[in-house]
Amino acid sequence: MNCFRNFRHRSVVSLTTNWTHARPAVLGLAWLCANGTGSSTAQDGAVAEGAAGTQEGGGSRVLASPGFAREGLPFDHLLGGFNASPEAGPGLVPGRLNAGFIQDGFSAELGSSVTYSTNLFQDPVNEESGMLSSSDFSMHYHHGGNRRMGVFFGLDYDLAYFRYFDEALNEGREPFSHNLNGFIGVKGAQTTITLSGAFLQDNGNGLDQARQTRETIQSESNDYNLGLAISRMLRRTSLQGGLNFRLQEFTNQEAQAEPLSDLTRWDGNLGWSVSPLGMQKFNFQPSLAFGNSEQAAGVEQNYLNPTLGVSYTYDPKLSFFGSIGMDIRRTTSTTESGEEEEFTETAPAFELGTSWQVNQTTSLGLSIYRRTLASALEGQSSSDTTGITVFATKAFPRGFVTSLDYSLENSSYTDIRGVESDPGAEDGGSGTPENYHRFSFSIGRQKLLWGRMPLSVSLFYQYSLSTGSNPLNEFEQSVVGFRVGLGF
Q: What is the pLDDT of residue 77?
């Protein structure tokens, strides 16, 4: 029984979170199991994760799905727990339908959208509204995902071209963004090994909340990710292990109000999942996460995160889960005067939530969490974040589907001397929000043309609000857009 599942849901209309594919997820502190039944096949696993899924074309349509980019979850899909091919996740632009659709074989899509934003660059002072057009292309090839045993592999590529209606805003900006993900694995009777890699070139033009995190917002970066995961299925229990490498290189630093430093991370995770006899609806998951992060600005961290997770499956449609752990983090840094600072922090980490598949067309979810992460802000070592995420999806007749997400994160920072700080407050520069609200709503329809060519149309709305004690950390942004896509 494999219950190490990923709780960063995918939205039917892609509206969030990193190798999310939203923004590559940093290995993390809290991970848990949302379903105590698991599956040893790719197809069953994908359906179990989506919990809403209606099978179609050898894949599954994931309707149960979240919200926003969630850094800190372990290995993203690599320790997601179901022995299936990692899915492509959200694209580079908002408004895409069927972003969570998984199938063997080749598929592609062309899309075009027009978006209006009240604050194009999320600036706290010089708010600039305007319109942005984008053209996107995606293609995917997956093989062997539905096999019980054997080799499986896949390749996903997304390309987006952005153009501002105000020509002056296009000068000096890179219009293209690229997202390339690949994986290969071997499934045996009890053991699955998966190797995956990804590259994301983010030019900072995208307005999709799905691809933004509270700290980096719309920064420009090149992100590299490489991961290895191994799972061993036994009777009533499973063992999991993995390693993950991530490098995030920030470009065009002169455009950043608060400098971001290139960040390198090595992360590992060992876990065990077991359902005791007589307690089939319960699943217990002790785990140990560990890793190292290093800022180019000279901050290095080593951390351990022991965690105990518990899930309860009331019925196949409703499950509850929770985890509690401790983040132990040792930081070494060099100050501007050349002095070396070294300190150790200990902070609690937890997550509580529920996932409810109301019926075949409606999904609801809730997650409340607290975690500590290495920071990419220069002069800062780590951030403590407490947050809540709520999502709902609903499918209607004639191919209509809606999605709603809300997320709130409250954060505090520890600087390179081990003192709680407010980034940007000392020198008057802009930093990062203390409270970060995000809300998204979308409605779309898909209709099959000529057999295997789905035509999709969607409307989407996004609202972001950043508040804090430093006015230069605050901004407000509303985004509304329209997208048309044609699949193959």
A: 30
- Note if the pTM is more than 0.85: no
Around 93, how many Cα atoms within 13 Å sit in the side-chain half-sphere? 34
Helix H segments across 51-208?
A: none
Which two structure tokens, joined as six digits, stand for 295?
A: 């800022």
Distance CA 105, CA 113 (A): 27
Contact 65, 392 (CB under 8 A): no
Q: HSE on the CB side for 422, CA within 13 Å?
A: 17
| pLDDT tens digits, 95-119 | 887 654 557 889 899 999 999 999 8
Name the residue ranges covered by the structural domains of the chain: 42-487
As given in the structure block, the two tokens for residue 19 are 């190798």
Longest dimension (CA), the chain: 69
Which residues are bridge partners to 116 per DSSP?
Answer: 131, 480
Q: Which residue, 219, 267, 207, 210, is CA-closest to 243? A: 267
* Residue ranges in the chain whose pLDDT is less than 50: 1-89, 100, 425-431
CATH architecture of structural domain 42-487: Beta Barrel (2.40)
Q: Are 199 and 156 in contact (CB under 8 A)?
A: no
